[in-house]
Amino acid sequence: MPFPGGLTAGLAFLPTWLQEEQNDAATFDALLRSWVRASGWKTAGLAWPLGSPKLVLVAHPDSVETRMQPPTEWHDVGNSLTDAQSTVVWQVPQSSGRLYTLFQPPGRSAGLLWVERESEPWKDEDRVYLRLSARLIERSQALGARIGPSIDPERLQQRLADASIIAGRMAHDFDNILTGIIGFADLTLPLIAANPQPANYVQEIAKVGQATG
Fold it and tell me: What pTM was computed for the model?
């Protein structure tokens, strides 16, 4: 059997990823641990997003740890998978190696999902099972909570357009204020020309206003 607990146990667990009430980060970690146990893995991990991971998790049957860096083979595996290989095995001493696949939450960048076990060689059914798992995990509400909210591209574009309009209006209003400051400084200067110190102050005001504008 590919999994010490049985392939049936691993498959039976998969629908749990899609339960709607599973929608927070702590729940995702618990699901990851349970998936490791049900599938019979030694460890499982994910790193997201591909290229520059912000989240790296490694799960054991009874714990989940957050790491600063993904496995050292991260970039090599990522390049292989984006070249159309659906799974990649990376050899690791004293284990069967890490079996990798991609996952991509809706509207998000892709990440890497991997599993590792003691020594039994990886088979075709293992690869199919991992790919199926990735398709369900990437649609899990708990994963969305773990990696943070997504922003709809159209909504983001509208926000940027609104911000641009507001920034333009603020710049226009600021220019009007500066024009007034510079103008009144120029009008004041001849009135105090006989007094050098105030005249210097007014000149500095005019210079700063012109430089800022």
Answer: 0.69
